[in-house]
Amino acid sequence: xxxxxxxxxxxxxxxxxxxxxxxxxxxxxxxxxxxxxxxxxxxxxxxxxxxxxxxxxxxxxxxxxxxxxxxxxxxxxxxxxxxxxxxxxxxxxxxxxxxxxxxxxxxxxxxxxxxxxxxxxxxxxxxxxxxxxxxxxxxxxxxxxxxxxxxxxxxxxxxxxxxxxxxxxxxxxxxxxxxxxxxxxxxxxxxxxxxxxxxxxxxxxxxxxxxxxxxxxxxxxxxxxxxxxxxxxxxxxxxxxxxxxxxxxxxxxxxxxxxxxxxxxxx
Length: 267
Fold this sequence. Notes:
Elements: H1 2-8, H2 10-13, H3 17-36, E1 41-42, E2 55-60, E3 63-69, H4 70-74, E4 80-82, E5 86-91, E6 95-101, E7 104-106, E8 115-122, E9 127-140, H5 143-151, E10 161-177, E11 182-189, H6 190-199, E12 207-210, E13 216-230, E14 239-240, E15 253-254
Antiparallel strand pairs: 1-13, 2-3, 2-10, 4-9, 5-9, 6-7, 6-8, 8-11, 9-10, 10-13, 11-12, 14-15
């Protein structure tokens, strides 16, 4: 299973030491950014990753690294069910937004058919703006029954996490910068920028310019953005909080009794 983990981060490992460090810092900051507000755990890269209920893996730099799915690898049905849809609108604390409509600063855009622009000032490096008009969740019907089945798998490791809920956003707009003092200018009609701010929609008539190259620039894509997880533990079926360091997660872990002599290898 270590080979799977190695291949999952191989692209990062092959880069120069400084580029690798920048990428890891960006991943770690994005994971903290996403976890602070809705309590989700990040997948990386967002939207382009595979993330499904029943996936299992570990955390690297705060983001979930998928090894496989318990249905395919252990013949355990995660029994996924759809949950109620929601939306997401998250902005880093260091980000300032200036709205201009018909040549004047405004507090909010209207649905008017006039020229407008949104100036996004990202004063700190590793800052993010995330919008998704619709977020569809798929969740495991019973974590407890899945945990009981996993307990019977000799090869299972307590350090592996299982995805209990996966969230797919559409359309997703994500802007991220590694550089401090980055200014992003989004121009279009006021009605289009209103849709961007309230729904995450990025119409074809909207243009974007940035003072520095953006580390991530997703416009109107659909794909996985976050997961919730659990894992097996030592002390029964109780909620468990784990530390929030770069290789850990903050909540949604479930403990189930396992034999005391089970090895604790990470992968």
